[in-house]
Write a structure and sequence with these properties.
heterodimer; A: alpha+beta; Aminopeptidase; globular; B: mainly alpha; two-stranded antiparallel sheet
Amino acid sequence: MENVEFEASEIEYVSYGGEHHLPLIMNLVDQELSEPYSIFTYRYFVYLWPQLSFLAFHKGKCVGTVVCKMGEHRNTFRGYIAMLVVIKPYRGRGIATELVTRSIKVMMESGCEEVTLEAEVTNKGALALYGRLGFIRAKRLFHYYLNGVDAFRLKLLFPRSELHPSLPLMADKYESHMQSDQGDTPFK
Amino acid sequence: MAEDRAYEPPSIPPRASIPSGDNTVWTDVSPLLDAACQDLQEGELIHGDNFNLFAAMSALEIMDPKMDSGIACTYYSLDEAIENGVAPVPLSADKTTDVQCVIDIMDHLLACEATWHKGHSLAQTVYSCLYLLRPERTSSHALLHSYCKVIRATCKAILSAVSEARTHEEEDLFTMAYGLPLSGDGDEKCLSLLNAVEETISRQLRSCKASSSKRRVSEDIEPLQNNPDLEEGYCKALLCRLRFRKHFYHLLMSMKRPQGRGLELARKHIATCISEIDYIKKSSDFLRGNAHGMSKQNLENTTASGCQPIGFDANLNSRLSAPTPPRSIKILCWEKALEYFMKLLQDLDVICSYTLAPSLEAALLFVVKFQKAKPDLVARAHLQLLLVQDGKLYGRDPIFSMITRATGLPEVAEMHDIQKNEFMVQLGQLVINLLKILCTNAAWQRRKLGKMLQDWRVTYVQLEMAFKGEFEEASKTSNNKKVCFKIYQHILAWVEEQTYWIAFRFLNLGFELELYSVHDYCMVYWYTYVVLIKLAEKKHLRMSMSSDSAKKKTKKKRDSFKDGEMDNQISAAVLFLQSQIYLSEGLSMMFAALRNEHRIVPPQSPFNTEHEIFIQQFELLQKACVPDHVSYATFKESTVHANFDTLAICDYFKEAQKIAKEVKSSFSNDPDTMAELRRIEQVAERNSIALNVCRAGALDPKLKVSFAFSHHPFYATATVKRS
């Protein structure tokens, strides 16, 4: 598929804003991910954690989305990235990184100690993206997906404040890094 | 979501076939739903308090083909499919066609079986065969009936082996079999019917050969089918298929015999199965050549003839496969299925040919070596069942005596008291668990080994305390003081050695599973290096203690030759580890230098640092204090100053290579260790060269370093290229 020509600044990022965004998210995920999800699954995420879901628009067209949750898991407060999608012609331009970075920032500010997700072992793009963000491959999950492919459980551990007293600034440092290095749209 | 109330799926009328329970009764909820619809905004949901992600994910959208397994069916029920003639008996009024169709069914079933073994559900693979689902329907067709019987019996045997071994790990799909007729009437006697059918076809084959060669009037034997020219080919094609099933079933039964008593016999059945597979392969030219005019070409080619088999419908059962959306399953093609069975037979042969009286250490190493061939679930389950029976190795040697021998302790009376110590019992259980875990798939294995480290550590501490208490007791009441002390020392040293061995394997498996990124290699090899040092130290301690005990025994006989041999063994085992210590240290320092000299630029995460990566990668080791006093700070201290110049002074790779070369002569009778030493030598040599090139071209920005596991599964080989 041909890549679309666009300036990074033309991409608009918005937080989940209500029922009108739901069909956009569902269409994107249904198109791009292997797992079938019911509408209950989507609503479970976006109604409970609307602040963790974001959409990316280009000239009014939804081109990417991220859907997440967070909660207590075995005595840790943990964020979870459920779905991350950018449609093919828009890939490789930092949109997914921007979407997921926004979610992770909210998780960190909300007191999460770590973030997890699963990715297919064959999904090199996603693995590289999360690797750059500091995720490690904590486990391999044998035949995890319905299609029989293995998955990696990826994990991002946030620094504990006693180890890095200066860390609240970390994410801010990244903003300037992103702006200068990747020409992505500046954080709001 | 507390205020969400309803998103209602279209309601389905209650089916008369589902009766009301004791405290339940069917009611029409349409009025309630109508009323709710008036009241609900879009996106609202009526839900219970326990509505969670699992509930949301388990919910199905009716009439959505991606979700609703019912909608994808051609037939609503098995009865309906049968009434519509999907699985006729006989398959054709024409006997030649009937035989052709039966062979296609046999082949497709084999492909289904292999697909099942590879981790798909039984319902959608083997039991997509309608003939299997209604055992009584085939009774008038001896050939098909006998084949169906042996398939059901085989599936049942394999299912029970895998469930019993519980090696199925995440592969739980494998053992899901509810609602399937796994045993038809008289399936346990499947072999007698199969033998009778085989006998008949053998006679038909003999008869057709005789009549064609000598043209004499043969006995009064009804031929298999109508076309005399094809009689021999079809008889042969059927015979190898029937014989494969017979010997495969015999093989499973032999392996089930306690204490490995059937293994010799099992090997004979394996050999026969392999040669029958050969005949099956050879029959494909004949079958394909005579398949003209049959049903359309089978794209997936799950049969030798290339024809679509009659009597299969994977969708009929998809409603039995749990509350998941229907999965589309791709059945392995016929060639792949045969390949799978060949591999399975070879793996089983490795299991069957291993000694029944190995030392504990040898048994552990055997499982690790066996896993290198990447055996599938069925082979691994069988190995595990054989290894651990009634808490004994191969059902023969109690684990406690295996441990005693492994620790190098002589059999003494005091052992019996120790055996009763609750922490020794616990240790025995840990060893059994370790053996079982080593039989699981690499992904599951690594997780379990990591978690197990803490148990080993805790048991060590508990044993140490218990021994201290008992030692004091013994020194008061008897003159057994020395003996007791020695026993404790031996056992404790052995427990520590095992703990570090597990940690080493845990770290190695991370490479096989591709869990580490290049930027983590530096810390992973560094951790491997510190674990290996401890392992070598404990091994040395334990081995010299046992050699001391042995020496005291032999001293009286003035057998000084044995002393030397014993010491030699110790130093060889430790030197083998020493070569790997240098190699891991060298790799760690090389990655540190590449990083410090900016040849590798690690990613700058906005959210965390290398410190958090370290904590996560080694969380389970750190929790278990394996080893003590190791932290991110110690890692940084030892790597922060590494550069190409310091590496020139201390050439770890040269050392590794040298030791590996020297120690080889001690392992001339051990081909596995020899091969491992050769690999270590190669990796060390190549990395030494790569490092020199890097050093020489330190200022050349065009030099690019890359890594591959081309010579060893977990020691990386560096390549330097000018880009």
